[in-house]
C-alpha cells in the first residue's frame, strides 16, 4: 500500500544543510496498522509528510497503492491525497466557525464528480455515526471536549473512504481513558479494512498496533511485529510485549 525505497530527505538553507531522513526502506501492506516511534527530532513527522505526499524526498521513491508518485505534479498529488489518504492530527485542526457536520464535509468539497450537497452531508453524517457523534452534528468545535474533537477529526479523515489513514499523535492531547477510546475507534477502522500509520510517543498505544517501526537520528533502527517482540532502540534486543485483545466500539 505504501512503499518507500532508499529515501533521503535533506533540508537546505543558504548556510546549513540538515539530514532529516537517510536510507529509509519501508513497505506497508494493505490492512496493516503500523506505529512509528522515536525521540523528538528523529524524523517521524518528516516520514509522515512523505507518506502523505505533503513533501517530496531529496532522493529515493515513494509508491502509493503501487503508483510511483515521486514525479507527480502538485495537482496530481493533491488529487491522489484527496482520494487515497485521510489525515488525523494531534491538534485536531477543526474550523471553529463551522459546525461539526460542516467540518467533516470539507474533504468532499474538493472531490471532482461528487454530487449534490445533500449527498455530501449524508456521507458526513454516516462518518460521524461511525465515531459515535451523530448527536453532535450541529455543535461547534468549541462546544466539544478534546476527545469529541478528535472523533470529529477522525470522521473528517474517513468521510471520503480513503484506503490509508495517517495519524500524527492522535492521542497526544488526551487523557488515558479518552486515548484508549480513540485507539478503539482506530482499531475498528483497521478491522474494517483501513491501512493505518500512526506516529506516537506512547508505548502503551503502540502495543495496540500490529507492527512497530522505530526511528533514531533519521534512520530506521527497528521494524518488528508487536506480537513477536519489538526491537529496543537503545540496545537492539528484542522485547516481548504482552498480547492484547483488540478493543471494539
TrEMBL record:
UniProt keywords, alphabetically: ATP-binding, Nucleotide-binding, Translocase, Transport
GO CC annotation: membrane protein complex
GO molecular function: ATP binding; ATP hydrolysis activity; transmembrane transporter activity
Coiled coil: none
Taxonomic lineage: Bacteria, Pseudomonadati, Bacteroidota, Cytophagia, Cytophagales
Listed SMART domains: AAA
Record-given protein name: ATP-binding cassette domain-containing protein
Pfam families found in the cross-reference section: ABC_tran
Every ABC transporter domain range: 2-242
Top-level taxon of the source organism: Bacteria
PROSITE patterns tied to this protein: ABC_TRANSPORTER_1 (PS00211), ABC_TRANSPORTER_2 (PS50893)
Species for this entry: Spirosoma endbachense
Stated family: Belongs to the ABC transporter superfamily. Macrolide exporter (TC 3.A.1.122) family.
InterPro entries: AAA+_ATPase, ABC_transporter-like_ATP-bd, ABC_transporter-like_CS, MacB-like_ATP-bd, P-loop_NTPase
Amino acid at each position: 500500500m505504501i512503499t518507500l525505497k532508499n529515501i533521503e530527505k535533506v533540508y537546505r538553507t543558504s548556510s546549513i544543510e540538515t539530514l532529516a531522513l537517510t536510507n529509509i526502506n519501508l513497505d506497508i501492506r494493505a490492512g496493516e496498522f503500523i506505529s512509528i516511534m522515536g525521540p523528538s527530532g528523529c524524523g517521524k513527522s518528516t516520514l509522515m509528510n512523505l507518506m502523505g505526499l505533503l513533501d517530496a524526498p531529496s532522493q529515493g521513491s515513494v509508491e502509493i497503492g503501487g503508483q510511483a508518485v515521486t514525479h507527480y505534479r502538485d495537482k496530481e498529488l493533491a488529487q491522489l491525497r484527496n482520494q487515497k489518504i485521510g489525515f488525523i492530527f494531534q491538534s485536531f485542526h477543526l474550523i471553529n466557525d463551522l459546525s461539526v457536520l460542516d467540518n467533516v464535509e470539507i474533504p468532499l468539497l474538493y472531490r471532482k464528480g461528487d454530487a449534490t450537497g445533500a449527498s455530501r452531508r449524508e456521507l458526513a453524517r454516516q462518518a460521524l455515526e461511525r465515531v459515535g457523534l451523530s448527536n453532535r452534528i450541529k455543535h461547534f468545535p468549541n462546544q466539544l471536549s478534546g476527545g469529541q474533537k478528535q472523533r470529529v477529526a477522525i470522521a473528517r479523515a474517513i468521510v471520503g473512504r480513503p484506503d490509508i489513514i495517517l495519524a500524527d499523535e492522535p492521542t497526544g492531547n488526551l487523557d488515558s481513558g479518552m486515548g484508549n477510546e480513540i485507539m478503539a475507534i482506530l482499531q475498528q477502522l483497521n478491522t474494517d479494512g483501513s491501512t493505518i500509520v500512526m506516529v506516537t510517543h506512547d508505548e502503551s498505544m503502540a502495543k495496540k498496533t500490529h507492527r512497530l517501526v522505530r526511528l533514531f537520528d533519521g534512520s530506521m533502527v527497528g521494524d518488528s511485529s508487536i506480537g513477536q517482540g519489538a526491537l529496543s532502540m537503545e540496545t537492539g534486543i528484542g522485547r516481548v510485549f504482552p498480547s492484547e485483545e483488540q478493543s471494539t466500539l
